[in-house]
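Re: beginner question about structure tokens

> Can someone show what the tokenized structure looks like for a real chain? I only ever see the sequence side.

Sure, here's an example I had lying around. Input first:
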Amino acid sequence: MTDTANAWTEERLAELRKLWDQGLSISQIGDALGVSRNAIAGKAHRMGLPKRPSPISKSTSETKKPAKPKAPVEPVNLPLRLELRKLQWSRSKCCWPSGDPKLNGFSFCGDTIVPGKPYCLKHCEEAYTTSRDNR
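And the corresponding structure tokens:
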């Protein structure tokens, strides 16, 4: 025994297409035709009707407009912990400290290192002294 109330007749298919073209949601079309939203989604797919945009992505794409990039504005006197984050350090650059690490303005030398050493030539001469050099 088949249920003819839920059969897809030409009239019901035409109504589905009309409601689809009006932009009703799948759930609204299902309510109007007395079937589940899954039945509407499946039938629309089999009929080759255009896909519906996701209500989730639709709402986020309409509300979020692309922001214009802004040039970063850095305060002149950052808290020390934030200023230390800006330090550029590399194994290929001299890491001789310059200034007091507890104060703003602290940095590293940054010149090219002597191979195998952490410092540039100038700072290697200062760092690597022997006691006989001091006589």
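Each token stands for a local structural state, so reading them left to right follows the chain. The first helix runs from residue 10 to 21.
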